[in-house]
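Predict structure. Input: Zinc finger matrin-type protein 5, 96 residues.
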Amino acid sequence: MGKKYYCDYCDCSFHDSKEGRKKHNLGLVHQRMKEAHFKQYTDSRTKLAQELQKTPCRRYLQGFPCKFGDDCRFSHLLPHEIDHLRYAGDTSPLIV
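Output follows.
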């Protein structure tokens, strides 16, 4: 048997070959898992800037679950959560 390749993002393993790795890395599941992994390390200012560009998701604000989840093109942050990001992203020193 040949070597196995393990993908940390997807938590799966498969037969290691150049074609197999290329096919896996171009796959939709891998792309989404990789994006989700790096999204958790986004700083507050970047996340705030991204969320302010989006309009609020009406379905989410009405208390219903959004079928798109994290892939929704609308913002799923409530006003108090945006204020929290503003506070967390404000790292400018106080001038006395």
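The first strand starts at residue 4 and ends at 7.
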